[in-house]
Amino acid sequence: MLRVFVQAFRTPDLRQKLLFMLGIIVLFRLGSNLPTPNVDVEAVQICSDQALEEEGFGLYGLLNLFTGGALLNLAIFALGIIPYITSAIIFQLLTVVIPKLETLKKEGPSGQAQITQYTRYLTIGLALLQATTLVTLAESGQFFPGCPQEIVADNSVGSLALMVLVMTSGTALVMWMGELISDRGVGNGMSLLIFTQIVASVPGMFWNIQLTRGWGIFALVLAVALVVVALIVYVELSQRRIPVQYAKRMVGRRMYGGSSTYIPLKINQAGVIPVIFASSLLYVPMLWAQFNQESAWAAWVAEHFQRGDHPIYLAFYFLLIVGFAFFYVSITFNPKDVSDNMKRYGGFVPGIRAGRPTEEYLTYILNRITSAGAIYLGLVALLPLMAFNIINPGMGMAFSNTFGGTSILIMVGVGLQTVQQIEGQLQQRNYEGFLK
After folding, report:
1. At 118, phi and psi to the nearest 5?
2. 281 and 424 co-located in one domain
3. Is-contact 52 398, C-beta < 8 A?
4. How far apart are CA 352 and CA 358, in angstroms?
5. 157 is in which domain, residue-wise?
6. Sign of the C-alpha dihedral, residues 431, 432, 435, 436?
């Protein structure tokens, strides 16, 4: 990996792209630490430290991880890239349900550009809604339950509206930064911004482990993290290759086909999306319980879901991940479309007839792979969480948020994807051809 980056910086145009990407990341981290107007910075810091020290503070743990600490600090980029991720997932699901969106998707770049524009509009709407909720919680004192400090300096309507406007504008700016990285940098801009926020929390959490538990637990946590990363890299690079043979055919005076290729099906076809879905869905009852603390149902939710280490919580988490994995793969990979495209261009799987038999074969293979991938996602999400709760019961939820399945999957996945793109661009520039 280091060799790839050294070679990239030796290539002038790639060096320019990497430096541009690093510059955007620096600005992004700066905005993640600038407080929103009308926020008492000292009070927020006191309440934030108190909340993170409390056992069982897990309501905003994952969301705060995705914002690199900006959420708990009520920074300008407090919402981070979360509204855009939610909007993109919603439109990806709606594409299967709404025929007009499916038609736009099949139109190619022009249709995809229109869907991207709709995604931006929905992102702004979601950011406005989430910023309003965040400011309301901060103004009412429910953002940090149990903290006596007043974190909002002025409770007037104008000041609160300004806070909502600044946070919504911050999300729009983050979305623009991500698109700039995708257009003029290397890799997917949105993924790299999430990667940056998660990585920014890792050194502080490691040092926290050393201060609270000593060098022995620190070494054990480091070893567990390295083993989990190695296993994730191995599985993420694993794939089932289905061979495809194309028959020869004459088009005019030219002959086409006769080649062999394969359909690569990754073991983890769904990526990290099912884990994000499951985590977001499990936060809904906890958020509702925070607004209705007097009811018996809220007490039950707080007892079984708040800390994140209860067997009922873990069982629900695992089942939701497995269910969302099957659901997401079913809407992103259609065996019927793949079979029809192969038949249209004279392709077939050796030993399998074209048409419906090929579709059934692909469905059978996909279900087996998805079963393994879904179980893998569930184990990756749960095992670090349980391990860190055993190692450090008092801070298990905070540690598992940083070194848990979601964060490690994102870090490893985005890292591998970025390095592969850099290698691909290096190969294009250093290709010598057949004459040398």
Report:
1. -60, -40
2. yes
3. yes
4. 6
5. 1-185
6. negative
379-393 pLDDT per residue, tens: 887 776 666 566 555
Domain count of the fold of the chain: 2
243 strand-pairing partners: 262
In this prediction the pTM is 0.76
250 φ/ψ angles, rounded to the nearest 5 degrees: -95, 130
26-30, 199-203, 345-349, range with the lowest pLDDT: 199-203
- Average confidence (pLDDT) over 210-231: 79
Rounded CA-CA distance 137/157 in Å is: 14
CATH code for the domain of 139: 1.10.3370.10
Q: Which residue is listed with tokens 């399945």? A: 405
Q: Which of 73-87, 244-258, 371-385, 394-408 has the lowest mean pLDDT?
A: 394-408
How far is the C-alpha of 425 from the C-alpha of 282, rounded, in Å?
Answer: 40
What is the spatial distance between Cα 306 and Cα 268, in angstroms, rounded to a whole number? 29
What is the per-residue pLDDT across 115-159, written as a single tens digit (0 to 9) for each? 889 999 999 999 999 889 888 888 877 777 777 778 888 888 888
Percentages of the chain per state (helix, strand, coil), in multiples of 5: 70, 5, 20
Average per-residue pLDDT for the chain: 78
Residues in contact with 363: Cβ distance below 8 Å, sequence separation at least 6, in sequence order: 335
* One domain, residues 208 and 275: yes
- State which amino acid sits at residue 232: I
Pairing mode, if any, of strands 347-348 and 249-251? unpaired
Sole residue written with tokens 């019961």: 393
d(CA 269, CA 263): 13
- Which tokens hold the place of 279? 């985590």
Residue 282 belongs to a domain: yes
A 10 A CB-CB count for 23 gives 13
